[in-house]
Amino acid sequence: MIGISKLLIDKKEPSDELRYGKDGSATPAARNRPIVVYNCLQRCNLHCMHCYAQATLKESEDTLSTAEAKAMIDSCAAFGCPVMLFSGGEPMLRQDLFELIHHASGRGMRTTVSTNGTLISRDLARELAGCNMGYVGVSLDGMEATHDRFRRVKGAWQDALQGLENCKAEGLRTGLRITLTNQNFEEVPQIFELLAEAEIPRLCLYHLVYSGRGSEIREAELTPEQTRQTMEVIIEKTLELHARGLDKEILTVDNHADGPFLWLWARKNRPELADRILMMIRANRAMSTGQGIASVSWNGDVLPDQFWREKVLGNIREQSFEEIWMDRENGFLENLRRREELVKGKCSRCRFLETCRGGFRARAEAVYDDIWAEDPACYLTEEEISGELNT
Fold first, then answer.
1. In whole angstroms, what is the distance from residue 140 CA to residue 345 CA?
2. What is the rounded (10 degree) CA torsion for 158, 160, 166, 171?
3. Alpha-carbon torsion angle 106, 112, 118, 120, nearest 10
């Protein structure tokens, strides 16, 4: 994640220690203590066009039981994983969800839920609030017509916003999550205005990853020019909200070129911010696949991130999380952690390699059938990636 609001206005956030360390110390990710995305079930009530988990209406028969899920949580907590993010499918469909969230919180992990929001009644929001829940992220893929088309269910937009309002009414910290495509990027200004009008404190803007059903809509990926235009809008709107006294947390996800792009923008437009931005994107470098992020699937498979679902590192039913994550004989995992030495093409000659670490390896594999090829979603120009990195 790239904290746009943090880099632009130095807004303090609960997750700062995870991204930038505490008092100059290494981040949990740098110590190989990852945030864990727990795809706690495959079942979902929607059928979204870009679902990386390829969620279905029927639950998988090999889903971890309550006891197995608790043992998995214990294993992650014992290793020092700081956050458990409950995702799906649609996590609200899991009958023991609140019990599992309570269990993770009790083991000292910060808990968050990623949901489509459509099933969160006021009563369920109250139960979530009683779980010591850190954050509820609700997916919204544009304004109403666009969102309902992506989610393939009419009324999903209204139901998602109602679920979010129910969470807010119960005092839960909430936010919106949007995956950027060529079908919704022009609605980003409207999403920012919704953020202001509905008093929503957080917005995460995801770049498309070619995984699951997302691999079927690669033609919906933004062009480099569209991405640059969208990033400029995100910067403009973040500063505009700040000028209005509305300091929202704005983040972009799944394209670490966003950090260098923001630094380049600052050098041209706000040079007084450039040094701090560079320092912070360097500190944030370790938040990456196979190191700062991990995923546990509904069947107990441990993955290097939630998108690379075919890259199974081990299964929690057979080994502890630590045994899987720290397996020195797993050449694939070890190579991921030294990817700067292995990436090719544009990534290998980029002056921002230290901060970006070669971008998203799953995208490189999807396009070039080579996990070390350049990230096809990088939108920086050859001129921008060349030269010495200095301020």
1. 35
2. -140
3. 30
CA separation for the pair 67, 53 (Å, rounded): 23
pTM of the model: 0.92
Provide the residue-wise pLDDT of the chain in tens; the chain has 391 residues.
Answer: 899 999 999 877 777 677 666 655 566 666 789 999 999 999 998 888 777 767 777 888 899 999 999 999 999 999 999 999 999 899 999 999 999 999 999 999 999 999 999 999 999 999 999 998 989 999 999 999 999 998 888 999 999 999 999 999 999 999 999 999 999 999 999 999 999 999 999 999 999 988 777 667 778 899 999 999 999 999 999 999 999 999 899 999 999 999 999 999 999 999 999 999 999 998 886 558 999 999 999 999 999 999 888 899 999 999 999 999 999 899 999 999 999 999 999 999 999 998 899 998 989 998 999 999 999 999 999 999 997 655 4
* Residue 302 β-bridge partners: 296, 314
3-state secondary structure string across the chain:
CEEHHHHHHCCCCCCHHHHHCCCCCCCCHHHCCCEEEEECCCECCCCCCCCCCCCECCCCCCCCCHHHHHHHHHHHHHHCCCEEEEECCCHHHCCCHHHHHHHHHHCCCEEEEEECCCCCCHHHHHHHHCCCCCEEEEECCCCHHHHHHHHCCCCHHHHHHHHHHHHHHCCCCEEEEEEECCCCHHHHHHHHHHHHHCCCCEEEEEECCCCHHHHHHHHHCCCHHHHHHHHHHHHHHHHHHHHCCCCCEEEEECCCCHHHHHHHHHHHHCHHHHHHHHHHHHHHHHCCECCCEEEECCCCEEECCCCCCCCCCEECCCCCHHHHHCCCCCHHHHHHCCHHHCCCHHHHCCCCHHHHCCCCHHHHHHHHCCCCCCCCCCCCCHHHHCCCCCC
CA 212, 217, 218, 220 dihedral sign is: negative
Query: What are 175's strand-pairing partners?
Result: 137
